[in-house]
Specification:
This is Kef-type K+ transport system, membrane component KefB. The protein is mostly helical. The protein has 19 helices and no strands. It has one domain: Na+/H+ antiporter like fold.
């Protein structure tokens, strides 16, 4: 007799109620603060990022702790629901951003992309490692892990946040600009390097770092890209050819979402970050012969109007600014913030000037790549889980992530106002505009 598996218990009624309230409140406040930020000439992403901080322990948890604890209880099971929604939102956001990547521009300016990527990586990475070797021992989770902490801080300072950058460029209508394409491409390479380095640090934390582990991680990255090009591209093209022939947009939207999710899962299974897989999926969907852009207009609307604000709002819920009451933590945080901003900006700016970008184009590169956002928050959470960071250093890293994401848009906007459009950008803008027009039903 075959024993049947016990049915899985459904989600508790109270847990479901809290989840629905949390999502509703987060989205409502994110929309309001996003619109308010736009009233002050800032992208909506600024207000959306501040939402989680206001509802988290830093403000609501202090002013009305009973309300904050009731609405956002600290139980892991409740937070995991929001985390799952946030991960779903971010992979779709990055997938939509991948649709805008112009591979022809990147191939034509491969030298510029590579130089900007290296400039934006090496200087902040070096400054982060040096800072980690010099910070007070009180900021270390374990005094015998200073070298590991230094490398971890270097990676955290070198990373750029593709999701936040993508949302910022979209809000500011800069995705079609050449500089916007360079920023997104360099940020993607920055993140790929950061996740590779993070896997190495994780190996150091849980086991001995060996040449085999390094080679295995690098091989997985290469295999993923090769498989996406040789297997994923023809499969996606064939599926989208069928979807384009349908009388409604539903199949195209569904296949696009499935493609992004499966590529994210494949990348995550290989030890890469899920958002890297989502970006690759978006690029494949946007290649010639893929989906008709107008058919993904409904997906783009939902992602940018609902899922992206939820993702950005939920990112700040774990931030606790009370740790900055300690003068040592405050001073260390300010030093790390200044070095992180200067390292990324100067590295990208100098690389831009070396590749014959104008002054304002180089400023835009430095400003755009400075946004670290939730990618650095995810890295901080990994460091906390591995015991590399303590509460104080976790707060510092998250603070850098949030402040750089808030600082980047105004700097980028000021620079882009001084850069003239060209004919290729106008054509790219016209093509991308199809993503926000109502598709014609055949």
């Amino acid at each position: 007799m075959i024993a049947s598996a016990a049915p899985v218990a459904p989600l508790a009624s109270h847990q479901l109620l809290l989840f629905l309230l949390e999502v509703g409140v987060l989205l409502l406040l994110a929309v309001i603060l996003g619109r308010l930020a736009q009233r002050f000439g800032l992208p909506a992403v600024v207000g959306e990022l501040l939402t989680g901080i206001l509802l988290g322990p830093s403000l609501l948890g202090q002013l009305a702790p009973s309300v904050g604890h009731w609405l956002l209880p600290g139980e892991p099971s409740q937070m995991h629901l929001l985390d799952a929604l946030g991960q779903f939102s971010v992979v779709l956001l990055v997938g939509v951003a991948g649709l805008h990547v112009d591979l022809r521009l990147i191939r034509r300016r491969a030298g510029t992309v590579a130089t900007v990527t290296m400039g934006g990586l090496l200087l902040p990475l070096g400054l982060g490692v040096a800072t980690g070797l010099l910070v007070p021992a009180a900021l270390l989770a374990a005094t015998d892990q200073r070298v590991m902490f230094a490398f971890f801080l270097g990676v955290a300072m070198a990373v750029s946040a593709v999701p936040v950058i993508a949302k910022t460029l979209t809000d500011m209508r800069l995705m079609h600009r050449d500089v916007g394409q360079l920023i997104l491409a360099a940020a993607s390479l920055d993140d790929a390097f950061a996740w590779f380095m993070l896997s190495m640090i994780s190996s150091m934390a849980v086991s001995a770092l060996t040449v085999g582990n390094v080679l295995a991680s690098l091989l997985n990255l290469v295999l993923f890209i090769v498989a996406a090009a040789l297997i994923g591209r023809p499969v996606v093209r064939r599926a989208m050819r069928w979807a384009n022939a349908q009388s409604d947009v539903g199949p195209a939207v569904a296949i696009a979402v499935v493609t992004v999710l499966l590529f994210s899962a494949a990348g995550h299974a290989l030890g890469l970050e899920a958002i890297f897989g989502a970006l690759v999926a978006g690029v494949l969907l946007g290649l010639p012969g893929g989906v008709e852009p107008a058919r993904l207009a409904p997906l783009r609307t939902v992602v940018l109007s609902v899922l992206a604000p939820l993702f950005l709002a939920s990112a700040g819920l774990r931030v606790d600014l009370r740790a900055l009451a300690d003068p040592v933590v405050l001073v260390a945080g300010l030093v790390i913030l200044v070095l992180a901003v200067l390292g990324k900006f100067c590295g990208a700016y100098l690389a831009g000037r070396l590749t014959r970008q104008s002054h304002w184009e180089a400023v835009a590169l430095g400003a755009g790549l400075n946004s670290r956002g939730v990618v650095e928050i995810v890295i901080a959470m990994v460091g906390l889980r591995l015991g590399i960071l303590n509460t104080a250093t976790y707060t510092i890293v998250v603070l850098v992530a949030v402040l750089t994401s808030v600082m980047a848009p105004p700097m980028l906007l000021r620079a882009m106002r001084r850069i003239e459009h060209n004919a290729e950008e106008a054509l790219r803008e016209e093509n991308q505009a199809q993503l926000i027009t109502r598709p014609v039903v055949r």
